[in-house]
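Recall the central idea of this unit: under ordinary conditions, the amino acid sequence of a chain determines the structure it adopts. In this exercise we apply that idea directly, starting from the sequence alone.
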Amino acid sequence: MSETHFDPFGEPVAQAPRGEAVAPAAGSAGLMRAGTALFWLLVVGILTARVAYFDPDFAERFGSFAALSNTLQALLNG
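Accordingly, the structure predicted from this sequence is:
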């Protein structure tokens, strides 16, 4: 009786007759490489856009908005 092996996500792993794991198909490996390349391309693109459009005054404007919000809340409650 053969022992069933599972991957980290709980899916059964296909086994060869001698008990070795079956290698993925060439198309599957190519699709995995393409997906990985697309992921890292998006990461680099997003980081580049964040660097290019970084606004150092954003935190200061948020702080003044919070102060205005607190002032309005105090006026409405008091």
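The chain has two helices and no strands.
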